[in-house]
Task: structure prediction
Amino acid sequence: MISETIGIIGGTGWLGGSIAKALLANALLPAENLLISNRSGDHPLVQHGACLVTYNQELVDRSDLVIIAVRPEHFASLNINATGKTVVSLMAGIPAQTIAAQTSASAVVRAMPNAAVEIEQSFTPWYCFGELDATRKSLVQCLFECVGTAAEVQEEGFIDYLSALSGTGPAFPALLMTALAHQAIIAGIPADIAQLAAKNVVVHSSQLLATRDAQEMIDALVAYRGVTAAALQSMTLGHFEEQIGRALQKGASVARKGLQS
Result:
């Protein structure tokens, strides 16, 4: 169990709120060690023992580790002093050095969870700026493992790239599922059947990848030289992977530019 006090600025929002709920649901820290800032003075998590404060600076003063889970454009107006504290940023596009300079934090962790935090299935890469001992790094890892899996990266630029890859969460699968359904409808398949078929491919059949190597599965299907092989070959000839690469680079570029984009 986590013994330190964790404060979440933006803990009533979707991302911060999901982490707060997971911390309590998995009993990873005493409820009284979780602080959430909310100017309205009310939030459902209070019923589970979380502490609610109305001012961000009060939350910072009472916390050992501070999570900032607000939209990037709201960061400049936070005006918090986190001298000697560890600050964990869930904001895209704002460099760790900028966060450290504005908050006076002794260490800044940039992390990028995705929408799957809602079901505790996010992958969260994180990067540390400043000195963070092994105990505190373990705390950060534990924090994000409560909503899925997590891994420390050694270069801050990786966070920007991964913002466009894992940070997009269900966006790419949703696009694929929509495209499959639309194409089936165009081919004359009834809409309800098309949508069921597409959902099975993206949501259900893809669960096989949890225990199998993706490339080995592709190689085996191509070697069979059947319907699937023909479809995969068409996608390959259509430069599918190159299109994915361009999409990721475009997203990463926006993440690097941050608030300047």
